[in-house]
Design a protein that fits this description.
Elements (H helix, E strand, L loop, with lengths): L1 H12 L5 H28 L21 H14 L1 H11 L1 H18 L11 H22 L4 H24 L1 H7 L4 H30 L14 H11 L5 H28 L1
Length: 274
């Protein structure tokens, strides 16, 4: 939801907000998120990555709650359902929306599936940054305004940094089990210290960009509103630097997700007021 909120706030600030395309973009974003989660659940199980040693929340395939075939069918249906609001957005935005939609679905499947799964080769973080940040924010704005501005791209970068931080915590929690199963996430490649540093850099970047936007005179001081959540960010950076077990990192994962959403809401309000 966060990228759609920020993209729509930018559209509102530029007097381009249109409710139906915004709602359709939200529907597509939510369906693609569900599709990615189901695909990750299915492919990680079938590839032997999700084992009984998994530390994260229960996954329906690995736990035996739902058969792999049913999860695969559900994944397919979710992606098909995303085409319904997607077709409406195509009627508004034309071929750029076709390209964005096709790339998003292909990337969602390639995240965990296919001959070169992105998440298993260190590209999962880049995937999250591009598609849940840049593409989602810019796409939401585009279907309402039918153009993109540099400021919108900056907003996509900010949201992408915060959302990627969620995945970083996930990968830090799974670093040992991923090593055992041969899943080379970026966390596995750069190690625990590197992953903690990545988390810090992502949050710092997300908070720094609005400051530079304000200092550059590109927006009023309202764009600094997300800095109200800075104490939470400092707390979570301190937490990730401490030795932690699976449950503690699951808690930090939830806190990072809440921070990302809270930050995005404050950013959206600031953009509208500025």
């Amino acid at each position: 939801m966060a990228p759609v909120i920020v993209g729509s706030a930018m559209a509102y600030a530029h007097q381009h907000f249109v409710l139906l395309p915004a709602l359709a973009a939200l529907a597509v974003a939510l369906l693609l998120q569900v599709g990615v989660n189901l695909a990750n659940d299915y492919f990680d199980f079938t590839k032997g990555i999700d084992t009984e040693d998994r530390l994260g929340p229960v996954r329906v395939t690995q736990s035996g709650l739902i058969s792999p075939g049913r999860v695969k069918f559900s994944m397919t249906m979710v992606f098909v359902l995303s085409l319904l609001p997607g077709l409406y957005l195509i009627s508004i935005g034309g071929w750029p929306v076709v390209v964005i939609g096709a790339a998003s679905i292909i990337a969602a499947l390639a995240y965990s599936g296919g001959p070169f799964p992105l998440a298993s080769h260190g590209f999962g973080d880049l995937f999250a940054f591009i598609f849940f940040g840049l593409v989602a924010v810019c796409g939401t704005y585009y279907v309402q305004a039918l153009h993109i501005t540099p400021m919108v791209v900056l907003m996509g970068i900010i949201v992408g940094l915060l959302i990627t931080a969620i995945l970083v915590v996930n990968n830090l929690r799974d670093i040992q089990t991923d090593r055992k199963t041969g899943k080379r996430t970026l966390a596995v490649v750069i190690g625990v210290k590197g992953t903690r540093a990545e988390y810090t850099i992502l949050l710092a970047g997300g908070y720094a960009i609005p400051v530079f936007i304000w200092l550059g005179g590109f927006a009023s001081a309202w764009v600094l509103l997300p800095l109200a959540s800075l104490p939470l960010a400092f707390l979570q950076i301190r937490l990730i630097r401490q030795p932690s077990d699976g449950p503690a990192l699951n808690d930090l994962l939830a806190k990072t997700a809440r921070l990302s959403f809270f930050f995005s809401v404050l950013l959206a309000i600031g953009l509208i007021l500025s």
